[in-house]
């Protein structure tokens, strides 16, 4: 699999080439950035059909000494989501970022963030993962502060302090793991951990890991930065941050380390903390979202709530729970990116994010209006859109695992979600148009393309998922992408055998 | 003195002599990174430090004449691209990041394959990046309005 | 020997305390640096060995003896990387703090509350 390092090399090269093109014309920069993300998307599509686990030894240094890149079902799924959203975000940026002066700088940082995300997904070395995590984080701090307005700088500072502390927690736990095992390769780590008897040190390490990744994923006790940081970024970046960034850096990395490396069996009953964290995130995110007047801030709180769903489903620890979590992760990336693009489109046309200053926008902006309806119905779980199926699976998984109270919470939060998104629809898109907004126009073509592609994806995934009624495997998405990804998690620490030669 | 910017004449004279020596020392640390303690990062910091010293002693105009901000930013990217280029050229021999050059004899200057080349890239990147960061923190202050 | 790790953890706690309690941007940045150094120090101590020698292997040296004598070089390489990352974050923090100072004329967090809750 010669193309694996390209997922890191291409965006990194593009980032530095773009950084040299500061004086170039905007069209040149646009074309370069879009070609790069399109190539990455094409490469990740070619990976769909790979079977089993493939490792790539960097510089022909064999594990556990060398750094390996690992490709398995989970990696394929995550790469596909990240590069899809990145591609649509760069298309969206063509028009959206025109009002900022330093477009090349924006794309440069965007590519650096993409490098970090792809690196975190692919790497099989735990310290390497930390480095890529920090690359992505530093790029995102810059992107949040990109507008250099007061709020954006403040939000970026807050985000930077909290998130860097999270990174240091992760580093500390990596140091502890190294002290206890003397290796950094994830498969080798897992092998040594499972051969050792005492679990208390690993339990402490896992607690530090959970804290660190929970800060990166904005799970509730640590969510304070997200509602400031995500709305402050330019909309394409908000879509990336909410859609894939917190999932890759928070959830994917946490699952990879806890499930595949440390192993749930060591955690024992402490694993139940994930259920609590998930449920609390869901409820608090939704309740805080209800009161918001700022369009993007409301979406940010909804991200906290939806991430709670994913964590809850992971916390169940059953195969169906994993499947539902991965399904919801995919869906949330699609519809939350769509909704942030919508918010960006509205902001682009009207110049405001305050919901009370909007009204009747669907009249003037039909594409944005219709796609936002699709996004709303998806996120609140109305059939036939994709959100319905993943939420249904999460609820079924809760019931199957005997966690009835959590199932009830999931249903209630879903109703709350519908409530606050209907508020958005009513205030922004329906009703009478305000006089101040009478001469707004529909957004330019590139932005419309991104919106329509995502809305169609919402519908297509939803229709495809209809077939799970006839059995799980009849749905294309479940069969081809989600099942291999689920197998990796179900396999747990069996991850080792496919990477280390025996 | 007609040139009022910067520090006193003593500092300027010393810096005029020592700056080039510091640059040379930085280049030595970069070039001998594979043999002695040092390498791309420390050497790069020393290279950047020489320009920061110039900037402190003579004021930023003189320093910019030696190395403008744009040049620093281009060098910064170039350093990273050199490193990436070396990594990618491993593909020509089959594997990403392959050490494809002859390893040579230990404790001679031209040894360890691609590592000296990587060090040069890292040195450029770090030196230019540190100088750029220093300039960004000190020189480009937004003048505060209304007080 | 255990004491030194405990001191590291105390340093870590001081950093966390500073970040949570202090209201001044500069003090927050300094606290972050303390936190960063605490973790780096902890990492480097893992590879430390009393009276250890530099890990350069000479031809014909006995492997077991070599391992017993030398310090572990890997944490040093890793800490170098993490110092660079810390440097990047600190520079960015300082840059943003300077911009905030230009906007507000103060480093006090309580006086710059454009964001709500």
UniProtKB/TrEMBL annotation, chain A:
Domain NADH-Ubiquinone oxidoreductase (complex I) chain 5 N-terminal: 67-107
Membrane topology: Multi-pass membrane protein
Keywords assigned by UniProt, alphabetized: Cell membrane, Membrane, Transmembrane, Transmembrane helix, Ubiquinone
Coiled-coil stretches: none
GO cellular component, one term: plasma membrane
InterPro entries: CPA3_Na-H_Antiporter_D, ND/Mrp_TM, Proton_antipo_N
Naturally occurring in which organism (per UniProt): Candidatus Desantisbacteria bacterium CG_4_10_14_0_8_um_filter_48_22
Family assignment from sequence similarity: Belongs to the CPA3 antiporters (TC 2.A.63) subunit D family.
Name under which the protein is recorded: NADH/ubiquinone/plastoquinone (Complex I)
Compartmental location: Cell membrane; Membrane
UniProtKB/TrEMBL annotation, chain B:
InterPro entries: CPA3_antiporter_subunitB, MnhB
UniProt keyword terms in alphabetical order: Cell membrane, Membrane, Transmembrane, Transmembrane helix
Domain Na+/H+ antiporter MnhB subunit-related protein, chain residue ranges per copy: 10-130
Subcellular location: Cell membrane
GO (cellular component) term, any one: plasma membrane
Transmembrane intervals: 14-35, 41-59, 80-101, 107-140
Membrane topology: Multi-pass membrane protein
Pfam families noted in UniProt: MnhB
Family statement drawn from the similarity comment of this UniProt entry: Belongs to the CPA3 antiporters (TC 2.A.63) subunit B family.
Protein's name according to its UniProt entry: Cation:proton antiporter
């Amino acid at each position: 699999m010669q193309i694996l390092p390209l997922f890191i090399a291409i965006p990194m090269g593009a980032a530095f080439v773009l950084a040299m093109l500061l004086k170039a014309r905007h069209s040149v920069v646009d074309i370069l950035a879009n070609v790069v993300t399109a190539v990455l998307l094409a490469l990740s599509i070619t990976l769909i059909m790979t079977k089993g686990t493939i490792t790539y030894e960097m510089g022909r240094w064999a594990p556990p000494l060398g750094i390996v890149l690992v490709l398995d079902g989970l990696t394929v799924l995550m790469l596909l989501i990240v590069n899809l959203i990145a591609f649509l975000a760069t298309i969206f940026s063509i028009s959206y970022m025109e009002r900022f002066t330093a477009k090349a700088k924006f794309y440069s940082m965007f590519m650096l963030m993409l490098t970090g995300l792809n690196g975190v997904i692919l790497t099989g070395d735990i310290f390497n993962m930390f480095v890529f995590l920090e690359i992505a984080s530093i790029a995102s701090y810059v992107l949040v502060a990109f507008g250099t307005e007061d709020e954006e700088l403040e939000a970026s500072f807050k985000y930077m302090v909290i998130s860097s502390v999270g990174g240091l927690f992760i580093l500390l736990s990596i140091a502890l793991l190294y002290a206890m095992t003397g290796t950094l390769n994830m498969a080798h780590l897992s092998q040594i951990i499972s051969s050792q008897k005492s679990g208390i040190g690993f339990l402490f390490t896992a607690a530090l890991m959970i804290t660190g990744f929970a800060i990166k994923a904005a799970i509730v006790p640590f969510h304070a930065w997200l509602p400031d940081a995500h709305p402050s970024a330019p909309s394409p970046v908000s879509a990336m941050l909410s859609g894939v960034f917190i999932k890759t850096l928070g959830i994917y990395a946490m699952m990879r380390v806890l499930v595949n490396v440390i192993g749930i069996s060591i955690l024992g009953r402490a694993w139940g903390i994930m259920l609590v964290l998930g449920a609390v995130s869901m409820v608090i995110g939704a309740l805080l979202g209800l009161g918001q007047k700022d369009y993007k801030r409301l979406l940010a709180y909804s991200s906290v709530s939806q991430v709670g769903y994913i964590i809850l489903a992971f916390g169940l620890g059953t195969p169906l729970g994993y499947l539902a979590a991965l399904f919801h992760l995919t869906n949330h990336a699609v519809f939350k990116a769509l909704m942030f693009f919508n918010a960006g489109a509205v902001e682009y046309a009207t110049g405001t994010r305050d919901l009370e200053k909007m009204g009747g926008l669907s009249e003037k902006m039909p594409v944005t209006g219709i796609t936002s309806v699709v996004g709303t119905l998806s996120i609140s779980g109305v059939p036939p859109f994709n959100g319905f199926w993943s939420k249904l699976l999460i609820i079924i998984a809760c019931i199957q695992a005997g966690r009835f109270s959590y199932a009830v919470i999931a249903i209630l939060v879903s109703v709350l979600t519908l409530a606050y998104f209907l508020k958005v629809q009513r205030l922004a898109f329906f009703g009478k148009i305000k006089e101040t907004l009478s001469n707004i126009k529909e957004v330019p073509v590139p932005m419309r393309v991104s919106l329509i592609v995502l809305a169609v994806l919402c519908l297509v995934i939803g229709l495809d998922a209809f077939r799970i009624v006839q059995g799980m495997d009849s749905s294309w998405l479940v069969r081809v992408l989600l099942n291999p990804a689920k197998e990796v998690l179900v396999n747990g620490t069996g991850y080792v055998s496919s990477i280390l030669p025996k | 003195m007609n040139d009022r910017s910067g520090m006193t004449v003593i500092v300027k004279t010393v810096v005029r002599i020592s700056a080039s020596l510091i640059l040379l020392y930085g280049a030595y640390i970069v070039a001998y990174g594979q043999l002695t303690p040092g390498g791309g990062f420390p050497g790069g910091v020393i290279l950047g430090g020489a320009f920061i010293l110039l900037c402190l002693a003579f004021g930023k105009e003189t320093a910019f004449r030696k190395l403008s901000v744009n040049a620093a930013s281009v060098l910064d990217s170039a350093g990273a691209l050199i490193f990436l280029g070396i990594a990618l050229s491993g593909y020509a021999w089959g594997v990403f990041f392959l050490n494809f050059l002859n390893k040579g004899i230990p404790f001679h200057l031209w040894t360890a394959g691609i590592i000296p080349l990587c060090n040069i890239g890292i040195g450029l990147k770090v030196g230019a990046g540190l100088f750029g960061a220093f300039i960004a923190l000190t020189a480009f202050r937004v003048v505060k309005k209304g007080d | 020997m255990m004491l030194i790790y405990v001191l590291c953890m105390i340093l870590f706690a001081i950093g966390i305390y500073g970040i949570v309690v202090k209201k001044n941007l500069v003090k927050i940045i300094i606290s972050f640096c303390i936190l960063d150094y605490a973790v780096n120090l902890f990492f480097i101590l893992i590879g430390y060995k009393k009276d250890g020698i530099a890990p350069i292997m000479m031809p014909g040296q006995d492997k077991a003896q070599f391992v017993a004598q030398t310090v572990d070089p890997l944490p040093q390489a890793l800490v170098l990387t993490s110092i660079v990352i810390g440097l990047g974050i600190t520079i960015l923090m300082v840059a943003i703090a300077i911009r905030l100072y230009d906007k507000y004329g103060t480093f006090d967090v309580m006086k710059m509350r454009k964001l709500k809750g």
